[in-house]
Amino acid sequence: MMTLGLMTLATLQRGIITWPQEKPKRTLAPGCIELPDHHLELEFVKDDVCWTRPQVQAMLRNLTRTFIEILETHDIEYWLDSGTLLGAVRNQGVIPHDYDADFALTKASMDKLRTTAIKLPEHYVLWLLHSPIHPWSYRDEALPGRWIDTRSGLYIDLFEFFPHANVSRTYTEKLPLADLKDASLKKGIVTHVAPNITEDSTDVIVSVTYTRVQDMMAPLKSVCWVFCVECHEHAYFQIPTAWIYPLQKCKFEGIMANCPANLHMYLRTLYGPNYMVPDV
User: Fold this and answer.
1) Fewest Cβ atoms nearer than 10 Å: which of 50, 92, 155, 239?
2) CATH of 42-163+215-271, one of 2.20.130, 1.10.10, 3.30.460, 2.60.40
């Protein structure tokens, strides 16, 4: 199987490439919901089994809680990512109507997970690229790991974040003059640009462009991140390390889980300034 991020491209067998066909829609029992194929590991999907929305929520809840317990038992660092982090902030749990979960691990933590023997609970399997002890299956560099519920095919995506030191990035911000923190810059604007205003003026908006050199972290650029709203580069979720560390605890499905230090900027980058407003 060849994959690119979250998108399955084709199956390669003996040099012959075949493109996957959409599964025909089936008649569901009352109360069951249709689970999107692209949110499932299809080899675990059983055609004669369907799930209600509360059952899906419960499986996602157990997926995340079980995996958090395993990571913390083995002292493997992680943090909630993407929609799972958004759910922690909005709902203190899985987002209603979600179909998967997302965790982030540094390269060092992922390497530790790759070589850690885990007693797998019933109904769960770990797929992990470049692991000498866990199966790789269809994983790729962009999305190297999955923790899967084998009853349903629901899963947690595991993203590997790599460090990038001394990254230079140019920012432009618009803000009221009174909110400008650089005192010398504020004084220069009043003195040389707009001498008729005061430094505490709130009705004057200034545009400030500056360059900052800082340590960054990022997973590989891939289609997994094409919907990132405020990423500086398309499909590349590179953010300051200071937004991640020190990790903090946040409530998630009745337990305390690891979350990034700057929840607001992390989620704003992914989903835009209105990330707290649920989709209609």
Assistant:
1) 92
2) 3.30.460
